[in-house]
Amino acid sequence: MSKIVKIEKDNMQAISHLFEGWNETLLQTCMQGYMGTAYADSGERAQAAQITVGDFVFFAGDPENECAEKLIRNVTGEHSRPYLLLISKDDTWNEAIEKCLGAKAVKKTRYAIKKAESFDKAKLEKYEQSIAEGYELKMMDEKLYHEALSEDWSKDLCANFGTYEHFSHRGIGVAAVYNSKLVCGASSYTYYDGGIEIEIVTHSEHRQKGLATAAAARLISECVEKGLYPSWDAANLISVRLAQKLGYSFDREYTSYEVKRN
Q1: Which is nearest to 223 in space by CA: 185, 178, 260, 186?
Q2: Which phi and psi (to 5°) does residue 68 adopt?
Q3: CA 81 to chain centre
Q4: What is the separation, in whole angstroms, between the first and last Cα of the chain?
Q5: pTM score, whole prediction
Q6: Residues 181-226: pLDDT tens digits?
Q7: 3-class secondary structure for 57-76?
Q8: pLDDT, tens digit (0-9, with 9 covering 90-100), for 237-260
Q9: How far apart are CA 72 and CA 57, in angstroms?
Q10: Residues 6+ apart with CB under 8 A from 204
Q11: 39 beta partners
Q12: In the chain, where does DSSP find H-type helix?
């Protein structure tokens, strides 16, 4: 019986052809050997593959391959996340996911955002300075890194970095603090050569105050100064509107499947 195999970081050429043309930074971070795991039907020239980075699992290749079902069921294996988002560009993969996982796979709509040609520096500065009274923006340091990881609502700001040393070397984050406590953050969910994937989250008690706008504006400005591109993908229409406010443009809707581990 065929088995799926783990693709090591120095062997990404075995699956790179399957993901060719898929402009997704989370795939890039895995292909470049920085974050994530990959599995396929073969360690040579694979015909079907899976890449997992953080909460996201991507499928490519032939969904009718004899290992396709094993790849789909593999999402509930070694991962420690409470839920995962399964994504493919191929409707046939989506059909295979639904058939294989049934009601465990909850269909969700996400929103792709176009890469911005440039950002309006003056507008970003205006948003940074418009932060509500009593709040302050700070670059994420070691204290804020550990504070973010200590609570469920904020841990994804840094969770894909194993240590603060890793985060300080390749990550970047902006925190909005209130009474010296983290209440909102905009940070690098992942990184790749030349950029980051943005993660933004606000504590439920501090929403509707413009904190996400201010923190994201500061993060984008910091990225531009460092020569990094701040990539944005939206989970909902609120995120789409915020992205557009900051200088991005909407691209398209796409399908994902949320799978809870328990």
Answers
A1: 186
A2: -60, -45
A3: 13
A4: 28
A5: 0.94
A6: 999 999 999 999 999 999 999 999 999 999 999 999 999 999 999 9
A7: EEEEECCCCCCHHHHHHHHH
A8: 999 999 999 999 999 999 999 998
A9: 9
A10: 153
A11: 6, 50
A12: 25-31, 68-73, 91-101, 121-129, 142-149, 164-170, 211-226, 237-245
148 and 155 Cβ atoms separated by less than 8 Å: yes
Nearest-angstrom CA–CA distance, 39 and 48: 9
SS3 call for 16: helix
Structure token digits, residue 20: 């060719």
CB 65 within 8 A of CB 49: no
Q: CA nearest 4: which of 54, 52, 36, 38? A: 38
Helix (H) or strand (E) run with residue 258 in it:
strand 249-260
Of the candidates 93, 13, 14, which has an alpha carbon nearest to the alpha carbon of residue 5?
A: 14
- CA–CA distance, 214 with 176 (Å, rounded to integer): 8
Residues, the chain, total? 262
Query: What are the start-end ranges of the H helices in 150-206?
Result: 164-170
